[in-house]
Design a protein that fits this description.
Elements: H1 35-54, E1 58-59, E2 62-63, E3 65-68, E4 73-76, E5 79-81, H2 86-107, H3 110-115, H4 117-133, H5 136-144, H6 149-174, H7 180-189, H8 194-214, H9 216-222, H10 225-228, E6 239-242, H11 244-247, H12 272-275, H13 296-308, E7 315-318, H14 320-325, H15 329-334, H16 339-360, E8 365-371, E9 378-379, E10 385-395, E11 401-408, E12 414-416, E13 420-423, E14 427-437, E15 445-455, E16 462-471
Length: about 475
């Protein structure tokens, strides 16, 4: 076999020759505690309490948050969104994008390090792994150990807990699209519909695969944000940094040694910053796209500095300019307000205000008037001219209402049909009306008429819709 062939099997500990990709090395992050770790876990608790809890929250006799695709209605507490409201969803996505740009320009990958679902679930799965398999060294030793009864038992227990959590996560996800209480009843008999089965299994499998096995590979190879986030950084963006001027040259030493006299910097080369990193990078090599800004290296380095009696902050949140110019935190914060940040804030505020105003003024009644194209105009008994219209009523509020319908615009115009329409909460209804006028009321051609629809319990809820009446 050609030794340079990509299929060549390398000896243990060696890199394969001629491969087209980097060989994956499993990362076993070491557990870490500290200020930023506490912040990460606080975000884990908050996000998961919202995710697993909101679908169970009742609101006006229904689920508080429900994306009912079958009925084409999205419920968000007291708001009801219909397909016609897709504009609000589009604007919300724009707001989210600008918020992400703003946070990234100010403080790097805050979203990735603290709130991204991949980070959150990886943190949860790692915690389970640490409780069952042990911390970093124990997990490395277990992976290298031969398959025996103890190893099999730990693997079965770990994967079993992961699978249960993944299934509950997939079940909860589908519970936002199918009422969760109905889903529970279906689960007791395994009578899910095809799409419920598909998404429960698919989302569970993705959770298990991404958080349990792929982990940092999702951030490094699959997530596009890791690739383009660098263009949103500038020299005043807060990122995780290693103070090379203070830390180099690095080297091991005893605590009582005068390391300055020995020509050493503050870094004792313990490599703990690498051991705790969930993506396996060495922050001492500078900012890298794999860094998700979780600050685990900051927590562990501060602990090492405390033990050695050195000042904290060898690895810290800082900026390129702050390191080069030796700025204090006050100086760093003073440079947050800069032109690009002002632009992001102004745009974000403007779009957010417009979105909130649009929601606040969203009409509670919508009516579409559609002409019957099969019968444009016809003469009926008594010689009067009749046009047929179909009115689509949509009560977007959560209060049942009764509406009165009146037509105007031509002399002696008359509405044939029940002028009172009743609609339940968040419901729609189609009603067909015949509109008649005497032939002497208008000349041949098209004429503008109006349908006035008003709520019988609230005069402020009304619609004035234009339509065209044809005279033969």
């Amino acid at each position: 076999m050609n030794p340079e062939s990509p299929n060549t099997v390398a000896a243990p500990g060696e890199e394969p020759a001629g491969t087209l990709y980097e060989v994956h090395k499993k990362i076993h992050p070491k557990a870490v505690t500290g200020l930023f770790s506490n912040w990460r876990w606080a975000v884990v608790w908050i996000t998961q309490a919202l995710f697993y809890g909101l679908c169970w929250m009742p609101w006006n006799g229904r689920q508080a948050v429900l994306l009912d695709v079958v009925q084409r209605k999205f419920y968000l507490f007291g708001l009801v969104f219909w397909p016609q409201d897709v504009f609000f969803l589009a604007v919300l996505l724009i707001i989210s994008a600008y918020a992400l740009f703003l946070f990234t320009a100010v403080a790097g990958r805050l979203w990735c390090g603290y709130a991204c679902p991949q980070t959150v679930y990886t943190e949860i799965f790692l915690w389970i792994e640490q409780k069952i398999d042990g911390d970093r060294n124990a997990r490395i030793k277990l992976d290298a150990a031969p398959l025996d009864g103890a190893k099999v038992a730990k693997r079965v227990l770990k994967y079993g807990v992961w699978i249960l959590l993944s299934l509950w996560t997939g079940f909860t996800f589908v519970g936002y699209f199918t009422p969760i209480k109905d889903l529970v009843q279906e689960a007791t008999t395994l009578s899910f519909g095809p799409w419920e089965w598909t998404w429960v299994v698919l989302y569970s499998a993705l959770t298990f695969g991404f958080a349990g096995h792929l982990r940092e590979q999702v951030c490094k190879y699959m997530c596009p944000y890791a690739r383009f986030q660098g263009v949103m950084f500038d020299p005043d963006t807060l990122v995780i940094t290693y103070d090379e001027e203070r830390g180099e040259p690095r080297g091991t030493r005893r605590k009582e040694v005068d390391y300055h006299a020995a020509g050493l910097g503050d870094c004792i080369d313990c490599d703990l910053c690498v051991a705790v990193c969930p993506t396996g990078i060495d922050i001492r090599k500078g900012l890298q796209y794999e860094c998700i800004g979780c600050a685990a290296c900051v927590d562990v380095c501060d602990q090492v500095m405390d033990k050695m009696g050195y000042p904290r902050g060898l690895v810290r949140y800082s900026t390129e300019n702050a390191l080069a110019k030796h700025w204090s935190m006050k100086d760093i914060l003073g440079h947050i307000v800069r032109p690009r940040i002002i632009v992001y804030v102004v745009i974000l505020i403007a779009i957010s205000v417009a979105w909130v105003w649009g929601l606040a003024t969203k009409p509670e009644l919508r009516v579409d008037v559609i002409r019957d194209r099969m019968t444009l105009a016809r003469e009926v008994e008594g010689g009067v001219i009749e046009n047929v219209f179909r009115l689509q009523f949509m009560n977007v509020s959560e209060t049942p209402r009764r509406y009165s319908v009146v037509v105007a615009g031509l002399d002696k115009i008359e509405l044939m049909g029940d002028p009172i329409v009743e609609l339940g909460a968040a419901s729609n209804k189609n009603v067909t009306y015949q509109v008649r006028v005497p032939p002497e009321s208008a000349n041949a051609g098209s004429h503008t008429i109006y349908f006035d629809i008003k709520s019988m319990s609230d005069d402020k809820i009304s619609v004035h819709e234009k339509a065209i009446f044809l005279m033969p």
